[in-house]
Structures are given as C-alpha cells and as structure tokens.
Amino acid sequence: MPEIPGGYRHLTYDDRCEIQRMLGLSQSVSSIARSLSRSVSSITREIVRNRRDDGYRSTPTAIVRLCVHYRTCKIKSLCRMCSTRRCASCMKMRCTNICPQFTADVCKRTAAAPFVCDGCVSISGCRLHRYRYDAKLAQAHADSRLRDSRVGIDTTSESFEAMIETARPLICERGQSIAHVWATHRGDFPCSERTFYRYVDAGFGGMKNLDLVAKCRYRPRRGKRPQARFCVPEGHAYTDFCALPEDERLSAVEIDCVEGVRTDTKVFLTMLHKRTSFLFVFLLDEHTQACVEEVFDSLEALLKDGFPSTFPLVLTDRGHEFQNPDRIERGGRTRVYYCDAGRADQKGSIENCHRLLRRIVPKGASIDGLTRRDAAIIASHVNSMPRPSLGGASPFDLARHVLPAELPEGLGLEHLTPDNVMLRPSVLTGGEHRN
User: Fold this and answer.
1) Looking at 313-424, which runs of residues are DSSP E strands?
2) Which end of the chain has fewer surrounding CB within 10 Å, N or C?
3) What fold, for 238-428?
4) How does pLDDT run across 219-253, given as a tens digit for each residue?
C-alpha cells in the first residue's frame, strides 16, 4: 500500500477530477491509486459509492432486451398478444416480467473494476445498465454523507433511553459528575463521555446544562477584611517547600478550613493526602489554633508511630488558626510550610477538592447543626467518587495501598459503591448514606 503524506485524509475535489480523467482514458483502478498515493480499496469504494446511475437506454428495444438469453430464446405465447413470434422480439409486452427463465444481463465492466462505463468503446450501442463517474456529483455526495453522519444521535432509541434512565438519576438526584458516571458505566453506554456532554448541551433526553454542577457559574467572591500581617517563621516559607525533593513534596498533606455562614462557630478542617487525593474532613467546635492542635493530637494517638510517615509535611495557607507552627509540629511529628499570601493555587489540589465538598455543604449553608458523623459521611462520599485524574479509580482505591488501614476505620469512613455516591445536601438529612 502506498504511503499517504500526512496520514489519513479525505479525497479532495481535485482528486476526484483526476479519477474522472483517468477513468475516461480507460486507466485501471490500481494505476489511479498509484497516481493519487492511495490504496486500491479507497479508490474502489469512492467509485462505487459516488458513481452516477444513468439507468438503461430509453428505447423500447433496450427495455425488452435485458435478458442474457434474448438472442437464443425460442419461447413463444407467454401472453395473448401474439403466438407465432418469439417473445424476445416482441415490441408490445415486456416479457421480462412474466418469463420464468428470465436472467438479467449484467455488464462485466460495471459489476467489477472499473465499475463505470467511462472509457468504454461500446457505450453508444449498449443496452445494459449504465454508470458514470462525475467528479462534481461525487463531491456533492461525499459532502452530504459527511454532513449527515454528524447529525442526530448515532444509536438506537432503546440504547439511548437506557443510557438516559441510568445516567439521569445519578447526575440530577445524586449530584455525580458525568466523568464519575462514565468511569463506572462506560461499557454500558453507546457513546463517549464527550458525546454525552454534547447531548446534554443540545437538550436531548430531557437534561440540561443546569443539571451539571460544573456548568453552573459561581458568585463573585466578597472581599475579606484586612488582617494583621503574619510573618512566616524562617524555614517554613513556600520557597523552602519547593526546595525539597519532588518525592517529599508529593508526600505532603494540604490543609485548610471551610467555613459556613458568618454567625457559625464551627468550621470544617480539611486535609488532603496529595499522593492519593484522599480528603479527611474534621468538624472543629471553634475556629481556633487549639482545635486544630486537638485534631493533630487525635491523629497521632490513632496512628502512633505511623503518624510521621503518613503526615510528614503539611502545606497550608496563612489563616490565623494555622499561625502557630509549634502547636502543629509538637515533638517533631511533622513539618509545616506556608503558601505565599493570596496564592491559593499553591495548594490547588485541596481547593479543587473543596468543590466536591461544596456540593454537599453549599456556600451560605450553616455548619453549626452538623456533627462529626456528618463530617465522616461527607468524606466517605467524596473519597468514593472515581476520578479521571486517578485513571478512573477513587481515592479509597489508592488509599487502601498507601494509608494505614486503621486510619479510615478509626475515623468512621466507609468505602461506598460508585452508584451510591451522592454529592447533594440531602445526603446529610435524607438517610442516603448506604454501603
């Protein structure tokens, strides 16, 4: 097969003009393929799909004489029109419609290569079915076929309805993303994840863009009140963190706080294990340094000697609850590093993970009415969600091989099946937390 410069490409109008010219010169299909640097099968498909059907000659003789036996046939009296003449020579009745021995005569030139009558020397008196290749008409057929192939839904109605019935409750009721649904049901659906996004954008299946969480627009952030400037202790700056070896930076745990309404006293303390994308969620009774220290103390008591290897480095912002590194690093159990002021992107992994948490606890929702059990439920659902960034696995799947087994168990976290994951506020009130 000849090489095609630039890889696969569609035939152009100039290519089709060349095909028409060479067919008119009675060139073979293989010589046309060599001239255009195409495979023989490509040229063959092009001619057969886009040739023009000219039918039969529009004369009575040509209509009658379509049988391969018409010169030697001696059958008489097929009808009442005549009884002495051969039916094959009759000009009044189409014997082809009533003769039991009729066998259609097929031209060898159109049944096999080159499949058209172009270049045939006997075309003027030919009585058989005719085909011609016209470059302009072939280009119009190809463009129409290419355009029509991209219109509508390329699947059966049954398969499409089954896909919608499976995906709609998971997306609209349980708050799962399309990537999440496709990670667990990809083999059951007749289209790709990207195609389903286009179906939703077009309004197919009764779904709309507002049903997708990531399609919603966020309100502009309100400016925060100016705070006293925090001087980062020497050796704890973000530049010091970047100077560490890459393997140590990957083992860091990013921490942050998630607040509810301004009148709340409780906040969520979140910790993200970067290597596994596993999110820990703790409910603090107060937004203070003492409550943050209590969480680290409880984790150290749970893991004992395994705490330094699980939480070797901590990367956080300059919030007032984290501004005493001695309380977090007590006894050298870990090392704390601070991001630059106003640079939340330096701990972007946990900020992105907060988007999942905010589906369950939206901005403007109060946290004071929640319990530590609610925090465990939130972490269970978030960590059971498959992630495209993890190759379709969930943080729970990776944590099983990296984190100590007693850590999720001691915190009351449960690994849920993908279809039971719910990222909606009702997960905390509707009894939707199931295995």
Assistant:
1) 313-316, 335-338
2) C
3) Nucleotidyltransferase; domain 5 (3.30.420)
4) 666 666 655 677 888 889 999 999 999 988 889 99
